[in-house]
Amino acid sequence: MLTATKRLQAASDADLIFETLNAFWPNAKCELEHNNAFQLLLAVVLSAQTTDKAVNKALAPLFQSHPDFSAFDLVELGEKNFLKTIKSIGLAPTKAKNSLLLAKKLIAEHGGEVPLERAPLEELPGVGRKTANVVLNVLKGLPTMAVDTHVARVSVRMGLARPSENRLQIESDILQILPSKWGVKAHHLLIFHGRYHCTARNPRCTECPVRDFCRQIGIKKTT
User: Fold this and answer.
1) Domain 4-29+145-207, CATH
2) Burial letters 124-150, b for 16+ CB under 10 A, else e
3) Annotated catalytic residue within 13, 52, 95, 148
4) 73 is catalytic
5) Which residue of the set 104, 130, 185, 212 is catalytic?
6) pLDDT tens per residue across span 83-99
């Protein structure tokens, strides 16, 4: 359990942690490839329970042949053809169905445009808080914290958040101690660090740039 003392210590170290991570990952950003707001929203929805790399690979031919691919284009393409496009990613049939519902609702209620406010975003099929956080961060530059598996793992290990299955609790914990200057980039830094360095298995602790600040909570020590 993360004690109040460790939380206070993590808060005092937060600026140094993100300063160090930023130096280590200067190009940390959203890795889902897109040319417009709809393509980003679609990619984020499709990335649930799969990797950004898999989503990019599946969508690349479509976005290359149709650089301005929109909600209208998806409806015209149809569910069956879109399923063929994304068949390589997890839960493809369900995601194809939901993507068409998403596109149709965008057209019916927003003229095909992606709303950049939380409430209407989260009313869209397949769009939850995490997806909305990504869209608002990337497209609007808002200081949101999209808690995926990497952010949850790394933030708890470092002591930036309390161990919890509740992603909203982790989001709240991080934001409470996050210096405002890192509000926009923080979740990208945590994602990059979790994806490429502080991995679920065999994290590279001895080579970690923030090892002096990290609480290493939940990391099994090897002998």
Assistant:
1) 1.10.1670.10
2) bebbebbbbbbbbbbbeeebbbbbbeb
3) 148
4) no
5) 130
6) 999 999 999 999 999 99
